[in-house]
Amino acid sequence: MRRLRFLDGPDIRPAADAVRAALVLGGVALLPTETFYGLAADPRSAGSVAKVYALKDRPERMPLPVLVADWDGLEALVTVPDRFRVRLSRTWPAALTVVLPAREPVPAAAGTGTLAVRIPAHDRLRALLYLTGPLTGTSANRHGTPPPVAADAALASLAAPPDVVLDGGVTAGGRPSTLVDLTGPEPRVLRPGPVAW
Q: 153 Cβ partners below 8 Å, 6+ apart?
């Protein structure tokens, strides 16, 4: 396991290099988000996604959310209905995760045909995503336990250590991101959170 500081601008490039190196080998990184620490893997890699499930003891039928840097990254993965485009563009970046139709099957979607995506309100994380591409963003805790706000708490919770740890100090915590399903005729709030829908 490699551990790196992730507190300010100069930390972004070495962190991205370490994450990319881990992803090439099917690895997983632990990193801070605007709420809690998350597990980052290549959403298109079956091996990396399987490793996330194993680290969390999470049922494999449950899809993993994906973090993207911007709208270009988002629209490469999902289809955004025109009726939600303005509202989402005014809201993101934010702790808002939305379920949208996937453009193509990816392992992180767990066979659902949809993908939960977010442009996070964490500047360093978005800068990292510009360099790595989309990453899974599920909370870094064993399934059913509270999500962690510190890297060491995440490491203590997981079934095994990830390949890379980006230590960004203590995150804001609070409630997990708001989760809204936008695939039906009407929006459906699946998990209330810090962003109102």
A: 37
